[in-house]
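Hi, here's the filled form for the chain we discussed.

Project: internal
Contact: R.S.
Residues: 156
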Amino acid sequence: MGKDSHINEFVSLLSHNAKAHVKVQTCWVKAKVVDWGNKTMVAEGLTDGLDFNDINLGVGHLYRKPKQGSVCLIGLIENKEAAAFLIDAEEVEEYVLNVNESLFKIDLNGFEIKKGNVTLKKILDEVVSQMLKIYAPKDVAGITAIKTSINNLLSS
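And the returned structure, exactly as it came back:
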């Protein structure tokens, strides 16, 4: 190995070591395309107009679906654009939180609260059905209004 190759290798190692100690960098972007199935998005940098691809929308237990066109704050781990993740967004269309078998989801259709296969909506629907059996025909309209309110608030 020549002297120049040793110097190049040394400079390369120093550069690699310096990058390893870089803290998370943040960037303001605008959401362009959201792939909710893969929980990623493509966004455009507000300061430079460059695209950031495959931005992770969560890390396994918490996901946010930013509205297309909304301004978002992303983080870059060790300044690597390939390791970008969503920190927050000015507008979201869906929010999903998973804890073991429990799920909390809010989207444009309402809330979903679930543990295993049991949903809050199914439980409340059953309560209303039982109330109709007990109180019918006394206050069917009032009980039906309760069911409508439940359906407007809860999804799935």
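Let me know if anything looks off before we file it.
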